[in-house]
Amino acid sequence: MKRLKVLYFVDTLAAGGIQTLMQQTIAQFDPAEIEVTILTLDQTTDRDMADKFGPDVAIHRLPNPMKTPLDLLRLSQQARRYFKQSADYDVLHAHASSKCVGVLRAAKRAGIPVRIIHAHNTAFFTDSQIKQWLGTAMKPALQRVVTTRFACSNQAGRWLFGTHDFTVIPNAIHLDRLEYAAATRKRVRQAEGLADKTVLGHFGSFSPAKNHHQLLQIFARYHQKHDDAILMLVGSGDLMPQIRTEIQNLGLSDAVRLMGYRTDVADLLQATDVLLLPSLHEGLPVVLLEAQAAGVPCVVSTAVDSVAKISDHYQVVALDADMAVWINRIEQASRMPAASRHQGRWQVQRAGYDVTQAAPDLLARYRELLAH
């Protein structure tokens, strides 16, 4: 059987849901069956970032800072030059962003037979009206340069593809490391100084879509009633300085932990009592799957795609709901007995999100698409 050559395109290699999805999926592939290369705009040469994909994965970088709309034109030129030197890929699997059009168009010109765009979002992740306008204008162009459309959920697919056909591909994850373990929970909570605390967790980039402002307002009200509570913010991003200032202004410096970028998310989920995700918009967040697999009760906004609900311990609250509703849901979630957490891993597996099952299916799908 022919060894496939697959190129993945992603804006950045920084920690996030898409990067976790890629990493865990690629790790399941047999290098004898597939040769994987990653193309990115990320200029970071941090070995930890590159090493997480393994020694068999080559990482190529397009030197583009993407600071102005004009850089999109430069990106198209750079992509054309790249494919003149490397055009022997069977599949280009691009994780959707405004930068994809130029890369996919260059791949089409280079004759790459299977060109996949993979939708993950349900809205633009920017407040810039100009960038939103550009993104909307590029949607029709995107449809003309792809052969196949994937989406993490129906909502994400409809947002990016409109009436065009697409296939939902589950955001599968590695479940074994997420299964609830009381010993791990105890160890991590002691190491992080959380042994006797109620820990509310948020895992995600410091970006507008994650709605950290409302998250802090919710926690401030909850902390007034439960002064033993800690809010653990895991992630990094451009808004972190602004959020740090807001934490100080709310007088919550001792109650909010800014954890930064972490590679031990599975362990931190074990230490978490309730996951909070009051996002303004989301497709299918990988961290929600991970949290439910770890048996963590979740309280999320109605803006999160409903397909994310797997566990019975998953509650949804409208963003404009009274603050008392949020507090009540968090209190309910925090009272969930620890014994119930053991069910999470199996519920997520039964729902089809086990990467050990999904990765071979994806490889077979690549071969099927190439055969046609």
UniProtKB/TrEMBL annotation:
Residues 187-337 form the Glycosyl transferase family domain. GO terms for molecular function: glycosyltransferase activity. It comes from the Bacteria. Residues 16-160 form the Glycosyltransferase subfamily 4-like N-terminal domain. Pfam families: Glyco_trans_4_4 (PF13579), Glycos_transf_1 (PF00534). Gene3D superfamilies: Glycogen Phosphorylase B (3.40.50.2000). InterPro entries: Glyco_trans_1, Glyco_trans_4-like_N, Glycosyltransferase_grp1. SUPFAM superfamilies: UDP-Glycosyltransferase/glycogen phosphorylase. This is Glycosyltransferase family 1 protein. It comes from Levilactobacillus bambusae. The lineage of its organism: Bacteria, Bacillati, Bacillota, Bacilli, Lactobacillales.
